[in-house]
């Protein structure tokens, strides 16, 4: 088998082996290139190395080694005998080492047929095992052991990697986080563009558009920008989808074109060849480049992208995606309230106002075709409005990063609208919409419109429609879905909150009533909201069409000196913990210092609670660092802070 009296019997080999060696013509070329009298295992190695899909080339790439350079080095180490070029691999051309190598290969077939994909691996195994010590040394320079590689290649492959569940849906466990991000992006973009099926353009669009993804890096390695390709794909996909409509697209067999199924299967085979337990982004990229020769290759060639270089890049960069930090399980309503109380000082009434809405959000009981909820937070700067939004993101969606934070003073003019929702393809601002991109990446989150009154009218009109329908149109053609989001708008208007709210009491029409927050939040919710909404009519910004879209208006009160003292104690404790953790220094404070810091921060109360951190930085952190820095050569690990009669910070050894 494989060798006869005439020489090498090509007909005995499987098609995948013949494809890897060019019907063994590349072996003969290697013999003639080296000027060798006989074919050696090294000539078979030289023939196998350039085969990109081959086991040896893939192993080299995984170690960051260029297979072509290895082949050149192996050729250079072969002795040149200056003989006439050989015309065929006849019996006299095959060396004893090659005959022994092919006999070893034949033994693998004695126990029956082998699975597809194993034939080239077995040839690679016996070639490596029969190469000489010089060749082994060449591989060792790159950290590769030829004998270990040979053992690995000779092992039977694991069972076929399943990429579909029995119901036809995609099997998420077969993909790593990087590949899943691409697939989820394709699904999100497909839905937003109104597509009813997954085709190669959508998968390529997701690969190109993945921020800092493998495709972007591969394109930049060719000094090419992904943006023109991204825009071109967007235009094609927009023509395929239904205008201004969200679809129900999912990764299921029934909604995939056959070529996409072939791409995923190719990626699975590639992953198994690399002994990867999961399909990675690199395997998806190589799968689409190998299987979709019609659309993908055409559009890349249109942008003068070298497809072979893309394949090589994907072969060399196959690192698994980093595991994301585990998100917390969404909290119960009581846990949310407790978390708010621990982080938001002086706003206990806010917790009571939020509780009914939180209960509905926890129950996932949202109105159809509307956002999960719309809150309007009113009150002075630095009183906890933004902090409350962060706590809600963590407690409702499991992660504080599930927050889209939009500072509306960035969108104070009409042309800023393109920064807010993006611009059509070909125009400045395409793909840069902060709200639309945020929804694309975080379809379930808290959206915070900070200081909403500072937005331009055109931007504000967009917000109004978004609050009403829960969806927003990206001028590029995508429809972004925010119906699983909690929307919070903040405003610094009514700086003295309830003290500026006055209305005429029906029982005493001549005496406008000015309630306190305590009085307001002692009312039943319906009366309180009615009173607040009535009072807001006197402010031009709060138009009826805006107020009517808000589910709950929450007032944050200005902080008292006692509140500042409580915040000061919390932040001083945090600073002490940091000194202990980072520098192993113990720092304590007395009540006089706490009171002094609180009073200084209270004097700057127009900055809100932020002033506490600023005062601590100046009056506590800097003196402590100066104290320890001046005693670096002295064993001093503890300090105590107080203030003197003049109010200056005094640091002493504890």
Task: Characterize the structure shown.
It is a single chain. By secondary structure, the protein is α/β, with parallel strands linked by helices. The chain folds into 4 domains: 3-154, Clp, N-terminal domain (Double Clp-N motif); 172-316, Clp, N-terminal domain (Double Clp-N motif, Orthogonal Bundle), CATH 1.10.1780; 333-555, Rossmann fold; 561-653, Helicase, Ruva Protein, domain 3. Helix content is 49%, strand content 9%. It has a 5-stranded parallel sheet, with helices on both faces. The chain has a 3-stranded mixed sheet with strand order 12-13-14. A two-stranded antiparallel sheet has the order 1-2. Helix 15 (281-291) packs antiparallel against helix 17 and helix 18 (333-343) runs antiparallel to helix 20 (385-397). It is elongated.
Task: Name some characteristics of this structure.
654 residues, alpha/beta, Double Clp-N motif, Rossmann fold, 4 domains, 14 strands
Give the structure's gist in a few sentences.
It contains 29 helices and 14 strands.
CATH level-4 homologous superfamily of the largest domain? P-loop containing nucleotide triphosphate hydrolases
SSE class: alpha/beta
Largest sheet report:
5 strands, parallel
Any idea what the shape is? elongated
Please give the share of residues in helix.
40-55%
Secondary-structure map with pairings?
Blueprint: E1 3-4, E2 7-8, H1 15-21, H2 25-34, H3 41-48, H4 55-62, H5 67-77, H6 96-107, H7 119-130, H8 133-140, H9 146-154, H10 177-192, H11 200-209, H12 214-220, H13 226-240, H14 258-273, H15 281-291, H16 295-302, H17 307-316, H18 333-343, H19 348-362, E3 373-378, H20 385-397, E4 403-407, H21 417-421, H22 434-441, E5 446-450, H23 457-469, E6 471-473, E7 479-481, E8 486-491, E9 503-505, E10 508-513, H24 517-522, H25 525-536, H26 544-547, E11 552-555, H27 561-583, E12 586-589, H28 591-603, H29 610-629, E13 638-643, E14 649-653
Parallel strand pairs: 3-8, 3-11, 4-5, 5-8, 12-13
Antiparallel strand pairs: 1-2, 6-7, 9-10, 13-14
Helix pairs in contact: 2-3, 3-5, 3-7, 5-8, 6-7, 7-9, 10-11, 10-15, 11-13, 12-17, 14-15, 15-17, 18-19, 18-20, 27-28, 27-29, 28-29
